[in-house]
TrEMBL record:
Reactions performed catalytically: ATP + H2O = ADP + phosphate + H(+)
GO molecular function: ATP binding; hydrolase activity; RNA binding; RNA helicase activity
PANTHER family in alphabetical order: ATP-DEPENDENT RNA HELICASE RHLE-RELATED, RNA HELICASE
Enzyme class per UniProt: hydrolase
Protein name: RNA helicase
Length: 530
């Protein structure tokens, strides 16, 4: 025994006299039962080294061979254990060091990638952005039907908002997302919903998307169906009829898309239980948080009582006031901003045209149509009365015009949108009812016949053109009455790279509450004929 183990003591002379008793006890024990002790110390150490724990090792102790005199009672086995422990600790420490290095390298790579795509984030532990749609599969096990649908739709690469918001939501984090009009926000929230729900179920509503208008809700429902093609999810658009009479406890529904009014109506009537909702999206969230809608939103948020719900806010304009309000209900939310917050899409060429008076507008419009009408064209006016007036003026001109406003029935509004989408209508006269979110492919020009009533309204209106990287044009007509508000729009134009005359930039900025001046009737008929 002595001989066999002597190599363990190389360089050390054992003081048998001094340790006579210990030696005898040790010898006795080994010879009597021949039990090899379990490496309990190693076990203990390794079991207490959890992933990510920083373990410190006294390197001096390790390097210097302690004289045996100093390790009174230390057995051969504990010495060997001590070496093994040191080795394990060292390996763990090495792995942790490597892990930390790699983690920091990854953070640097993410920061560079975000910079390249103009992605700004804030919040803790933000997941890496997507480099490609293929990462949806490699990182999040995305099913093939979804990737196939993306290919069919011609989505080759994620847009910046999709690159960052999708991983955030897939990691179960709540999110404020602000990205320019036409930059693919819809898929950024639909994709995580489809991936989270995995398959259809009849266990109640699991995802709710709220939109400020019926038109946008209908469009989002259509988009949801397109993206989930090949997978049978129950996707329901809340219509007037459903809100009034459907009993959702009997109606299978995985994803419900609606205006807040209709959802809260159904909840109030106890026809809709939202307690199992896992995902809640507030699309065009700043609009939803406006006075008049905020109470309905509050009712829906309260009804979605599942403690593990993931909520997100999406818009092209997200004022600080809305963020502050939303923060009171959100948990550890990540903020994702693409480009500059509250700015217009850079692919839209923006122009301001002075027309003097109301009369001048109609002349300018007809002249511009005569010179170069490049349909489809969207014409925005201040209210439904003016929409009707302008339509009456243009309907006999040879330009295939139509109109959409809140006084029309649901079917009439649907037809107006469909005809414009299909190209049957060249010029669509509209109120702000379709200013947000509507995705009309290839709108060449947006004309603000009436000056918008806020900078946000301006950004959303003109954002109906220049979508998905295409170019577009926006013309804003202004009269003397609009001059005090000109600077606010000018700022949006200049922030997105457009040119604004110096005299406009020199105007003072007027605090912009709703700017809706009393305007003269739109008519070219002499007054006695009316
Ligand atoms: N990754 C992508 N590649 C190509 N096209 C895309 C991609 N993602 C979305 N699109 C298309 O871009 C267009 C605009 O997308 P979307 O309507 O989601 O914009 P948005 O950011 O929600 O705009 P808004 O602020 O006006 O609501 C749509 O026609 C959509 O099909």
């Amino acid at each position: 025994m002595e001989k066999d183990t002597s190599f363990l003591f190389s360089g050390i002379t054992f003081n048998r006299k001094k340790f006579a008793n210990d030696f005898a006890r040790f010898k006795e024990k080994k010879e009597s039962d021949d039990v090899v002790e379990k490496p309990s110390l190693i076990e203990n150490v390794s079991s207490t080294i959890e992933e990510g724990t920083v373990v410190r090792v006294d390197k001096k102790r390790k390097r210097k061979a302690a004289p045996l005199d100093a390790v009174e009672g230390f057995s051969v086995f504990t010495r060997s254990k001590s070496k093994a422990v040191d080795k394990v600790v060292e390996q763990n420490e090495d792995a942790i060091r490597q892990g930390k290095k790699e983690y920091h390298r990854q953070l640097e790579r993410d920061a560079l990638f975000r910079k390249k795509h103009n992605i700004h984030v804030s919040g803790s532990n933000i997941p890496s952005p997507l480099h490609s749609f293929a990462e949806l599969r490699s990182r999040y096990n995305c099913k093939s039907y979804l990737l196939r649908n993306l290919t069919e739709l011609g989505f080759k690469e994620p847009t910046p908002i999709q690159r960052q918001a999708i991983p955030v939501l897939l990691s179960g984090r709540e999110c404020f997302a602000c990205a320019p009009t036409g930059s693919g926000k819809t898929f950024a929230f639909i994709c995580p919903i489809l991936m989270k729900l995995k398959h259809a179920s009849k266990d109640g509503v699991r995802a709710v998307i709220l939109s400020p208008t019926r038109e946008l809700a209908a469009q989002t429902a259509r988009e949801c169906k397109r993206l989930s093609k090949g997978k049978k999810f129950y996707i329901k658009l809340m219509t007037k009829q459903l809100a009034k009479s459907a009993d959702f406890s009997k109606l299978p529904c995985d994803i419900l898309i609606s205006t807040p009014f209709r959802v809260q109506l159904a909840v109030r009537k106890r026809k809709l239980d939202l307690s199992k909702v896992e995902v809640l999206v507030l699309d065009e969230s700043d609009k939803l948080f406006e006075l008049g809608l905020v109470k309905q939103i509050d009712a829906v948020v309260k009804a979605c009582s599942n403690p593990s719900i993931v909520r997100s806010l999406f818009s092209a304009t997200l004022p600080d006031t809305v963020e502050d309000l939303a923060r009171t209900i959100m948990h550890d939310a990540v903020r994702v901003i693409i480009g500059r917050k509250n700015s217009a899409s850079e692919s839209i060429k923006q122009k301001l045209i002075f027309v003097g008076s109301e009369e001048g507008k109609l002349l300018a419009l007809r002249q511009s149509f005569a010179e170069s009408l490049n349909p489809p064209v969207l014409l925005f006016v201040q209210n439904k009365e003016r929409a009707k007036e302008l339509y009456n003026e243009l309907k006999y001109d040879d330009i295939r015009a139509d109109v959409i406003h809140a006084d029309l029935s649901e079917i009439q509004r649907e037809n107006a949108v469909d005809n414009f989408r299909s190209g049957k209508t060249w010029v669509l006269i509209a109120t702000d009812v379709i200013a947000r979110g509507m995705d009309f492919k290839g709108v060449n020009c947006v004309i603000n016949y009436d000056f918008p009533d806020s900078a946000a309204a301006y950004i959303h209106r003109i954002g109906r053109s220049g979508r998905a990287g295409r170019s577009g044009e926006a013309i804003t007509l202004y009269t003397e009455a609009d001059v005090p508000f000109l600077r606010n729009v000018a700022n949006v134009i200049s922030a997105s790279g457009g040119e604004v005359p110096a005299w406009i930039m020199a105007l003072s900025k007027k605090k912009w509450r709703k700017h809706r001046p009393q305007r003269e009737t739109i008519s070219t008929k002499p007054e006695d004929e009316e």
